[in-house]
Amino acid sequence: xxxxxxxxxxxxxxxxxxxxxxxxxxxxxxxxxxxxxxxxxxxxxxxxxxxxxxxxxxxxxxxxxxxxxxxxxxxxxxxxxxxxxxxxxxxxxxxxx
Length: 97
Fold this sequence. Notes:
single chain; 97 residues; alpha+beta; Alpha-Beta Plaits; two-stranded antiparallel sheet; 12% strand
């Protein structure tokens, strides 16, 4: 899903790179290839592609990743699906853009 970006420069995603142990879980669970791996540690390859779902932070064994899950595009889509009604700005199309 490369090439998608949401709101540029507003993602709450933060990676404490010195704390990273290079397990690669963030790369595995991220649906938008936000992370890359360099010199045995994760790095933010495309921060603006983050939809703030929180999967990376939830799966990081050393808590090197922080994200305010529930505030971004993913939250809006999930809420729309659960409530089965349209949210202004999302249009019911199932996409964040």
